[in-house]
Amino acid sequence: MAIAEERNRLAREIHDGLGHYLTATTMQVQGARAVLESSSAPVPLAVGALNKAETLLHQLKRRGFAVDAALEQRVQAASVAELDHWLDRVLDASRLEDVIDA
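The structure corresponding to this sequence follows.
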C-alpha cells in the first residue's frame, strides 16, 4: 500500500511540474508558427522544424518521459535532421536515452 501511495505521489509531482512547462512551450511553438506562417515571406523549413519539435515533445510527454528545461531547449535548437532521427526513434524507445543521444 505504501509503495502504491509513493508511486502516485511521485506521478502527481511529475505531472504537475511538467504539465505547466509543456503547455507553455507548446503555446510558444504555436505562436512562433503563427508568426512565421503570416509573414510576407513564409519560411516552410522553419515551420516544418517547429512542427517536428512540437510533435517530438508531445510524443515524449505521451510516453511518460521526463522533459526538463535543458531537454526542451535542446529539442528547440535541434536541426531538422536531428528531429527526424529522434521522431523515428521515439515510438520504440523505453528510455529517453534511446531517443535522444547524450
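Residues 2-38 form the longest helix (37 residues).
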